[in-house]
Amino acid sequence: MTTPFFSSSELDSRVAKTRQEMDSAGLAALVVASPENIYYLTGLNHQGHFALTALVVPPDGPLMLVARAMEAPTITAQVPHGVHVPYADDQDPAAVLADAVRSVAAAGSEVGVEMTSMSLPVSVWEPIQATVASIHFVDASALVAGLRQVKSPAEITLIRRAAQASSRAMETGLAAVKDGVPQHEIVAAVYAEMILAAKEYPAMAPLIRSRDTLLQEHVSWDDRAVTSGDAMFFELSASVGRYHAPLTRMAYVGDPPPGTEVAAGIATAGLEAVRGALRPGAHADDVYAAWQAVVDEGLGHSNYRRHHCGYVIGIGFPPTWTGGAGVVGLRSGSDLEVREGMTFHVLSWILDQEPADYVLSDTMLVTADGGEILTTTRRDPIVV
Q1: Pairwise CA distance, residues 314 & 120, whole Å
Q2: Same domain, residue pair 86 and 50
């Protein structure tokens, strides 16, 4: 059996904090659906979330894990402190989950539900609402996700290890870029190093693509070969204990476009502005404004805007390393309070602007003195 990444006492502490939040919100129970939050509270680490897996958290007593019956060996091994509520493949999982909720919540009570989770399909949610009409369901999507934002020392240790593995995978990928090499061979080198360094699969495939598809931000490689004068974009993260630490770089094949050094200076200064602004008590809006001010000055105008200059990261399961609760970003208008122990993927990208494109991102840990950059790959223009 694989050794758990967290002690029983740490998991118990997380459950206790969750129950405190439930009590403050007047919730008789909580239904957790996202793989990240289920992992945070129980340690369940598998790929079975394509079928309904939901955690029912009562105010006291054991947690109830509603999952396929064939997952019993996994749940017994990984969640010995919980109760498996199984459903067979010919049963309606919505009915089984509804029964589990009714067993811990009285008629007329309020039950919190992660309504924004991709793992709670309409085919499950609508029947539950119809059959458990005596209970009032409220949106509690932010309850566990909010607790996860500030990392414990054990979590930070895993993120540091993930940052080391991500940096190793990035440097391997950059070194593999050569004129005539097919893109998929570069990706294969990245995957090999990532698995060797981190020993587990990432939540998201590395985003590796050539410069002609640079603006297509969530596409990855094809079967074309690298050519002289091209550039390869890399955004990737390794996973250690399901914790991620992404970073972004670009490798130029031959001389980079004119203005690249200037764009690199702007992006680097923007990254440093975020690092300085990521202090406990600051708000996400202030951090974004610090980045935007540097970019405006560097570009000589205020017309360039990004949807954010970073976002909270930590636990990740497919299909994303953003944590399963949507993107909690360092963006304009956000009142998210920065707290010590938070970790962010900080992006300082200059795209489709003069003097040139440049991408730069790193994982940062919020400390009392500002952001600590955890990923280590060089940040100047990389020419191969």
Answers
A1: 21
A2: yes
How much is the pLDDT for 2?
65
DSSP structure string for 176-240: H--TT-BHHHHHHHHHHHHHHHHSS--SS--EEEEGGGTT-TT----SPBP-TT-EEEEEE--EE
What is the spatial distance between Cα 86 and Cα 49, in angstroms, rounded to a whole number?
14
Where among 82, 114, 148 does a domain terminate? 148
Query: Strand pairing partners for 345?
Result: 311, 363
**What token pair was written down for 55?**
């955690």
CB 316 within 8 A of CB 204: yes
Dihedral sign for Cα 150, 152, 154, 157, please. Answer: positive
Residue 1 has pLDDT above 70, yes or no: no
**Binning pLDDT at 50, 70 and 90, where does residue 374 land?**
very high
pTM over 0.90: yes
| 329 and 233 within one domain | yes
